[in-house]
Write a structure and sequence with these properties.
- Helices cover 27% and strands 29% of the residues.
- It is of the alpha/beta class.
- α4 (80-88) packs parallel to α5 (108-118).
- The longest helix has 17 residues, at 139-155.
Length: 289
């Protein structure tokens, strides 16, 4: 399993790029109908009406090497706490940069990068989005922007070996799932966004963490019915249905009655380190979690 947070300034095109990853590109092209791919990530009517992501949108994506949970973080300054929640549970990041912007490091992009690094997100794919506005034949502009982004990320503490950059367009879908643009092919032979995600390193400590005592970090709490629903990242050990847990730091005991993995929809009773899970707890007050 791998958890990837989607970062970047508001209107950089994070939701549109991620929507393309989740949507069948073939059907989109054959229909010839403009599709608002960001709607696949905006999960309530308020977000869709405002055209801005306000909460973490969580979706699943399977590649050759990983079962990925994508967490589309809000890019607006008002919703930075939600971005922090997503980055805190992430193993890697997809940073979306507006390639048509005069200042690619403006606004929340800088804040997102430093917060992600501080929260332990140590590998990153950078998508220079909106290349259709820059011009697919403008390889020099792309190289200049890539150099600026790499210099900035190096200053933020990211080693060059842990950063990969690529050109793309969320509007047209070019180089997200497939690169079918002949002009781009003439000077760019690197991976698509999907291939870059598949090329992330497996978190080095993940296998060893399975041998340790259970530790889950709670990302969200929802009260409903007789149980409390939580979303959490298992950072060590295993958990299974009907297991008794201790809620820290208060020390309350609770029983996990039902759990499901966001990485894998197969019906299972046990879940291990590296997985994001939705759980139901009984015997505990939601105010105490």
């Amino acid at each position: 399993p791998l958890t990837v947070v989607i970062l970047g300034h508001v209107d950089a095109g994070k939701s549109t790029v991620t929507g393309h990853l989740l949507y069948n590109n073939t059907s989109a092209k054959s229909s010839r109908i403009p599709v608002n791919f960001a709607w696949l990530l905006d999960e309530d009517e308020q977000e869709r009406a405002r055209g801005v992501t306000m909460e973490i949108a969580t979706k699943q994506l399977e590649t050759n090497n990983f079962q990925i949970v994508l967490q589309d973080a809000p890019g607006h300054a008002d919703f930075v706490p939600a971005m922090i929640t997503g980055a805190a549970a992430a193993d890697a990041a997809l940073l979306v940069v507006d390639a048509a912007s005069s200042d690619i490091r403006k606004g929340q992009l800088r804040e997102h990068v430093y917060l992600a690094k501080g929260l332990g997100v140590n590998q990153m794919v950078v998508v220079l989005n909106k290349m259709d506005l820059v011009g697919w034949d403008n390889s020099q502009a792309y190289s200049s922007m890539e150099s600026q982004v790499r210099d900035f990320l190096t200053q933020a503490g990211y080693p060059s070996s842990k950063v990969r950059c690529l050109p793309a367009s969320g509007l047209t879908g070019t180089n997200i799932n497939v690169n079918d643009n002949e002009t781009l092919q003439s000077w760019y032979q690197g991976p698509t966004v999907l291939q870059a995600l598949d090329g992330f390193d497996t978190p080095p400590q993940q296998p060893k963490q399975l041998e340790k005592p259970l530790r889950m970090v709670v990302a969200d709490v929802l009260e409903g019915g007789n149980a409390v629903s939580i979303r959490a990242k298992i950072v060590a050990g295993w958990v299974q249905n009907n297991e008794k847990l201790v809620v820290l730091p208060v020390g309350d005991e609770a029983t996990l009655t039902k759990a499901s993995s966001l990485h894998n929809t197969d019906l299972r009773k046990a879940f291990g380190a590296g997985e994001m899970v939705d759980c139901s707890l009984v015997g505990v007050d939601p105010q105490r979690i």
